[in-house]
Design a protein that fits this description.
Triger factor/SurA peptide-binding fold, 3 strands, SurA-like protein, single chain, mainly alpha, 238 residues, globular, 5% strand, Trigger_fact/SurA_dom_sf
């Protein structure tokens, strides 16, 4: 069933939400190559599951050596290796995968710094509600839930580890970055950078995103970034 199959693919893409770039891996019922895309997705899921099975310790994001710091916010080796492993499993191609992952993490840490500077926080209650909403959505579609259960089992994780460790890591960042985005856009409207849109069109979304990215880029340029001596040789562009 087209609708059900597409829903599974879209739902399970949550698992890779911070690995696959927007538009780089798209699933749609209107896509004539949907079956090929589904097989490609399944292949990625197998690689992701295999990575997790051999690297469960990487789920302890805030443990291990500190590879780098961004405005005093640490990037731990476990988080770096988790993101690198998932990127490689999902087929991300980069001239230097270590630089690619570090750049992504630096951008995220700058957003965390900016959120803190703007007194933006995410509560445990908000994270719990987000996760419960996700669970409910999966439970409403048994076929999607079955696929997720298979993925969790193949990864060697328990349901608790998936939802309360891996997905909690994702949920916190999703919520924090969404709050930061909304705050920056509201401030942009207040300061007259652009007018409040009467209707949210793709052009307006692009304008908002461009403005948000420009603010983050500005803070990246002035960020205090330090790489631990032990890991400097890994990176070419820093």
């Amino acid at each position: 069933m087209k609708k059900g199959r597409t829903l599974i693919l879209v739902s399970l893409s949550i698992f890779l939400i911070f690995i696959l770039t927007i538009g780089a891996f798209s699933f749609s019922a209107k896509n004539p190559q949907e079956k090929a895309s589904e097989l490609q997705f399944d292949n990625i899921m197998k690689k992701v599951s295999s990575f997790f099975k051999s690297n469960k310790n990487k789920l302890e994001i805030n443990k291990g050596d500190v590879i780098a710091e961004v405005n005093g916010i640490p990037i731990y080796k476990n988080e770096f290796e988790l993101r690198k492993g998932l990127a490689l499993a999902s087929g991300v191609q980069a001239d230097n995968i270590d630089d690619y992952i570090l750049q992504k993490l630096i951008r995220e840490k700058v957003q965390e710094y900016l959120a803190s500077k703007c007194n933006i926080r995410v509560s445990e209650r908000e994270i719990n509600e987000y996760i419960e909403k996700e669970k409910k959505e999966f439970n409403e579609y048994p076929e999607a839930k079955k696929k997720l259960d298979e993925l969790i089992a193949a990864s060697g994780m328990t349901e608790d580890e998936y939802w309360n460790t891996y997905e909690r890591y994702n949920a916190k960042r999703i919520l924090l970055f969404n709050k930061l985005y909304d705050f920056i856009i509201k401030e942009g409207i207040k300061s007259g950078e652009f007018k409040k849109a009467e209707q949210m069109t793709s052009d307006v979304q692009n304008e908002y995103k461009k403005y948000f990215d420009s603010i983050v880029d500005k803070y990246i340029k002035t960020a205090k970034i330090s790489i631990s001596d032990e890991y400097k040789a890994m990176f070419k562009g820093f």
